[in-house]
């Protein structure tokens, strides 16, 4: 089965927007284009249902139904229960809330392992627990490749290890970590597995039962949706955490990790992501599969297309002696998040040359300060990052390669 790219791109208003014509978008790791289903749901909610939800009058009842629909439909695709899904304003803030909720679970002198491959979202709040009696053990990346070694991880566990925090995929290195293996390793030592999925989820929602993570977080605005962070928390953990909401919310799983009131409209519109996934599935496959099986089929479709897009770009980069590729030079077990460091030309000049060729992409540390430190790459100016999605076309990749040829 081959991805019908024309159909996929027809689902995104950005590709028919006149002001974006001619521009190739390669900063998707910072935030994807929203699908039309999310845009419509958000507009409809603000037009018809922007009232307090769950009261017995029609507009309010409908508002609550739409919010509930997002919990149930997204959780079904992730293969977990609705009560295990929590929405917050961002992944960074969700981790901050989690760290405060989980600290009372542990004793002074207990240890947590935090990787140095993370975006700071899944690093900073955990490391701050060192000020509250928790010992933080760092899991460093390979200084040449940026990859995390599970053999190194095995040497970091002690009988006081309580948690391992790491990314599913780094937002600058692109290497996909073996989450199930790492989670099982943590569990074998009586520790929890907390996974930052921000870099990975845009390339396919994971089956959370399959990967065995206890907590998994990602950003919906990077997965075609509204500006929200989503976190899965195993329901067996909630009762062990300290309530972070109003005192009268204690014991209400949906509220305990949401200190402020939820964003009704954005939560309601989040299920537009599932509308989009269902539309793509129904266009390519026979209807009738369960949501989690639909998700698995779409993942294969998306990954195949993204690997085909990566091949010519990585081949071109491998042919150059004037750049450093940050991360692995392969298409398998790798997300299309490709960072480079020019070796012979000023990085700012290369970057602005690419912009002049109508390439939208980023430069900097992308809050991945710690992996860059381990790899001895200065955070300022950082790296040039080229990130793309299943909706990216081969022609856009060609436009990027042509721009690189002139810029380098």
What does this structure look like?
- It is a single chain.
- The chain is of the alpha/beta class and 408 residues long.
- The chain is 39% helix and 14% strand.
- It contains 16 helices and 13 strands.
- The strands form 3 sheets. Strands 2-8-7-6-5-3-4 form a 7-stranded mixed beta sheet, sandwiched between helices.
- Helix 12 crosses helix 13 and helix 14 packs across helix 16.
- The protein starts with a helix and ends with a helix.
- The model has no long low-confidence stretch (mean pLDDT 97).
Topology, element by element:
Layout: H1 5-10, E1 24-25, H2 36-48, H3 58-78, E2 85-88, H4 91-102, E3 111-115, H5 124-127, E4 135-139, H6 150-154, E5 161-167, H7 179-188, E6 192-196, H8 208-211, E7 215-219, E8 229-233, H9 235-238, H10 253-256, H11 264-270, H12 272-284, H13 291-318, E9 323-326, E10 337-342, H14 347-356, E11 359-360, E12 362-364, H15 369-374, E13 383-387, H16 394-407
Parallel strand pairs: 1-11, 3-4, 3-5, 5-6, 6-7
Antiparallel strand pairs: 2-8, 7-8, 9-10, 10-13, 12-13
Helix pairs in contact: 2-11, 2-12, 3-11, 3-13, 12-13, 13-16, 14-16
DSSP strand tally: 13
N→C terminal distance:
37 Å
Structural class: alpha/beta
Q: State mean pLDDT (0 to 100 scale).
A: 97
C-alpha-based Rg, rounded? 21 Å
